[in-house]
Design goal:
By secondary structure, this protein is an all-alpha fold. It has ten helices and no strands. It starts with 15 loop residues before the first helix and ends in a 7-residue tail after the last helix. The N terminus is likely disordered.
């Protein structure tokens, strides 16, 4: 392999059935839902019919107060994700480079995953107050740890032979990070970003329910108090679409990054 030019891995395109699988699965769930409603006939306040939810969603989409609520929740989720990422990535590099910092922080990373957002939100309300700022901070805390863990893992698994070869060629610490370590770790980092950005939507909803606001979390609270189950289902559908859009966007970037990473050398010359 010495002196050989690395060839990019050929991307395998999914065939028709694989591409249609998510839609078929969603259709199956929808049909199962409709069948349960038709056979069991539960009260609408317990389980509304899919058609009732679709009608309620259509009404919500035409409401003048609905889209401002969507924008606020989306802004909170994205703002929190960017803030969490801006803190997590530099800290991941510091943990990767410093043995002392790695030994001090790594044992606590697993424990942080067990802290639920519903437990953090009341504390933030006491410490920081209410409104969009504390909600963004809650979203940042929720995405911070998954992104930090994925970034540390990605940097840790970069091929040390490539790193050693770059150092022998005179690459400094910053150049090594920019041109070798970060590009090779990028797919793993983006996997953490993908999960974190989707999780931020949950953080925004929980934050609005606890700390106020005028987003979809508050709308869910109003619908819950009014026993508007069809309305709650419709709002949840919008939240799922929002999280899926963020997830899909990062996934697209992740797939492109894998192509770039495959062009980098994996053996010493």
């Amino acid at each position: 392999m010495s002196g050989s030019t690395p060839q990019p891995r050929r991307r395998v395109r999914p065939h028709g059935l694989q591409a249609a699988a998510p839609w078929l699965f969603g259709l199956t769930l929808l049909l199962a839902w409709a069948l349960v409603v038709a056979v069991a006939a539960p009260p609408p306040y317990m389980l509304p019919a899919p058609l009732a939810v679709a009608e309620r969603l259509g009404t919500a989409l035409g409401s003048p107060v609905f889209w401002p609520a969507v924008r606020e929740t989306f802004a909170e989720a994205v703002g929190g994700s960017l803030l969490g990422t801006a803190v997590a990535l530099p800290l991941a590099v510091a943990i990767h480079r410093s043995r002392l910092l790695n030994a001090a922080i790594t044992p606590f990373l697993g424990a942080t995953q067990a802290i639920p957002a519903i437990a953090i939100a009341p504390l933030l309300a006491i410490w920081v107050g209410y409104g969009i700022g504390p909600i963004i901070l809650l979203c940042a805390l929720m995405v911070f740890f998954p992104i930090l863990v994925s970034a540390v893992v990605g940097l840790r698994h970069v091929d040390h032979h490539v790193v050693d070869a770059a150092r022998m060629d005179g690459a400094g610490s910053f150049a090594l990070l920019r041109h070798i370590e970060f590009p090779l770790a990028l797919p793993t980092v983006l996997a953490g970003l993908r999960n974190g950005f989707a999780l931020a939507v949950t953080g925004a909803v929980v934050g609005e329910m606890v700390m106020g606001g005028s987003g979809l979390g508050q709308l869910l609270t109003i619908q819950r108090d009014a026993v508007d189950t069809a309305g709650m289902f419709a709002t949840i559908v919008v939240l799922c679409a929002m999280a899926s859009a963020l997830y899909g966007l990062i996934l697209l970037i992740e797939r492109r990054s894998r192509t770039v990473a495959s062009l980098l050398p994996t053996d010493r010359p």
